[in-house]
Write a structure and sequence with these properties.
The complex is a heterodimer of chains A (81) and B (421).
Chain A lengths: L3 H16 L20 H15 L5 H4 L5 H12 L1
Helix pairs in contact in A: 1-2, 1-4
Chain B lengths: L5 E9 L6 H9 L6 E2 L3 H5 L6 E2 L12 H4 L4 H16 L15 E6 L5 H14 L8 H5 L3 H10 L5 E2 L7 H14 L5 E8 L4 H9 L29 E9 H6 L6 E10 L12 H13 L9 E3 L6 H15 L7 E3 L2 H4 L6 H15 L1 E2 L15 E2 L4 E2 L6 E8 L3 E8 L6
Parallel strand pairs in B: 4-5, 4-6, 9-10, 9-14, 10-12
Antiparallel strand pairs in B: 1-7, 1-8, 2-3, 6-7, 8-15, 11-13, 14-15
Helix pairs in contact in B: 4-7, 8-14, 11-12
Classes of the chains: A mainly alpha (81), B alpha/beta (421).
């Protein structure tokens, strides 16, 4: 089982790859859109890449609720459990 | 009819001959070939009969911001690099130092095929990995106007961003459309030209199946040979060339460097066959005549023609006829060249790279050669430059021809009026 920090680190790599956000800025309390300036198409790419990376399913209706990095990490943790 | 005068004030190029305008032009004057044997695995894996092409010699993504580049199809990456060079060459900056009113700035980026790399790879992703793996960026990357929209975004151009699509005449049509925008008063400055980035197995196979591509695989640099008896088809190239076109009034008001004048555009359609040109040359000649008329020029004013001259058996001879019809006895004092012999066929970028060659030929009074013309067809009736040729002193004018599948013929007329030294 990946730890919260491991998930956050891997997710930060994805956000960096897709949207060019510095990995150290991808912290749990950060909002994807308001703080990290991730646009809607990039957010979709991040979700798909995360599904692949973490071997989880993140349905579109759930993805809409993942406002912060912490929301996404928590969802992935639950989905992996 | 009196027209608003339109001049060229900036140029940018990413081509099989060079990474920018200066290196591309230098290679043309040196008679170099940009055609080479393709070393992609797919050439041998798919057993393609045509194994040569004229590619840009670096990865365009490597010169763009990484996140931007991954959101662009190759044709859009190439167009952005050409746009950056052209815009900078015109003396403009990118942020607060951009002195052009965005509402008076337009963009036209032509393409023949558009984001086909993206389209095909998205299909592969869909069928191999399922719908959840298809990138949400697929549509803006594959759409034909992706490059135009992307360049407009970069330059903050709000007077319209257009894409003209007429196969191998696309870029000339686009430059002609930019001329219309400026003459209709819809913009003061238009960044215009063409882009293509499809040296890819599918078009290589499809054009090959039409018997349109040269199979001179063992002599790539000698494969593109317009008007030569041994020609056996065109060589697929890629690249982007864009110009900053501007009303003379706007250019002079800011003291811009001027490369010359875009005097007129002439359009016709063969309405003869989807892919074969009208062998009489009459409809192609109509486009040339219309370009001269719109530019206030007569055949006697023309010194130079940059021909479409793709190196296909029927196309080249038909164009020679068209030139003689349009220019009549004045043809004898006109120097004709076919620069596809060096850079191959850029499809939707063809008219743009050849406009670049035409503009620079007038500026330097030097016509780049048609290479590989060892054994010319007999009775062509045109004077083809097989080595670098000088143009006379004084006023100069030239025509650049582009013809495309679908019957499209677009000729552009350029002059050296208003050129700054």
């Amino acid at each position: 089982m990946a730890t919260t920090e491991e998930i956050r680190t891997d997710l930060a790599d994805i956000v960096n790859e897709v949207a060019g956000v510095a990995v150290e800025d991808v912290q749990l309390d950060k909002s994807f859109t308001d703080d990290l300036d991730v646009d809607s198409l990039s957010m979709v790419e991040i979700i798909y890449a995360a599904e692949n990376k973490f071997s989880v399913s993140i349905p579109d209706e759930e993805a809409k609720n993942l406002r912060t990095v912490g929301d996404a990490v928590a969802y992935i943790e639950r989905a992996q459990a | 009819m009196e027209h608003t005068t339109v001049v060229i004030t900036g140029m940018g190029a990413v081509t099989p001959l060079g990474d920018d305008v200066a290196s591309t032009w230098q290679a043309m004057l040196a008679g170099q070939s940009g055609v080479h044997r393709l070393d992609h695995d797919w050439v041998t894996d798919l057993n393609l009969p045509v194994q040569i092409g004229a590619e840009v010699k670096f990865d365009p993504a490597s010169r763009l911001e990484r996140v931007q580049a991954r959101r662009m199809d190759r044709n859009t990456q190439l167009a952005n690099l050409a746009a950056i060079e052209a815009w900078t060459d015109a003396g403009f900056g990118f942020d607060e130092d951009n002195p052009v009113d965005p509402q008076r700035l337009g963009v036209v980026v032509a393409t023949g095929i558009g984001g086909m790399n993206t389209l095909v790879s998205a299909w592969d992703t869909l069928t191999d990995q399922g719908v959840r793996r298809v990138s949400p960026l697929t549509v803006p990357m594959l759409m034909a106007n992706g490059a135009a929209g992307s360049v407009a975004l970069r330059l903050k151009a709000r007077a319209g961003a257009h894409t003209t699509v007429s196969a191998c005449a696309s870029a000339n049509e686009g430059i002609g459309h930019a001329l219309d925008m400026l003459r209709l008063g819809r913009a003061d400055v238009v960044v215009a030209g063409g882009t293509e980035g499809v040296v890819h197995p599918l078009p290589m196979a499809a054009f090959g199946q039409m018997q349109a591509l040269s199979r001179r695989n063992d002599e790539p640099e000698r494969a593109s040979r317009p008007w030569d008896k041994g020609r056996d088809g065109f060589v697929l190239g890629e690249g982007a060339v864009l110009f900053v076109l501007e009303t003379l009034e706007h250019a002079q008001a800011r003291g811009a460097k001027i490369y010359g004048e875009l005097a007129g555009a002439g359009i016709s359609n063969d309405a003869h066959d989807m892919v074969q040109p009208n062998p009489s040359g009459e409809t192609q000649a109509m486009a040339m005549t219309r370009a001269m008329t719109e530019g206030g020029l007569t055949a006697g004013d023309i010194n130079h023609v940059n021909a479409h001259a793709t190196s296909t058996p029927t196309g080249d001879t038909g164009e020679a006829k068209a030139i003689r019809i349009a220019l009549a006895e004045a043809t004898d004092r006109v120097v004709v060249t076919g620069t596809k012999s060096m850079h191959g066929h850029l499809l939707g970028g063809a008219g743009a790279i050849e406009s670049l060659a035409t503009i620079l030929a007038l500026r330097d009074r030097t016509v780049p050669p048609t290479i590989n013309l060892d054994d010319p067809e007999e009775g062509l009736g045109i004077d083809i430059a097989t080595s670098v040729r000088d143009l006379p002193t004084g006023d100069l004018a030239a025509i650049n021809n582009s013809f495309g599948f679908g019957g499209a013929n677009v000729a552009l007329a350029f002059t050296n009026r208003h050129i700054t030294s």
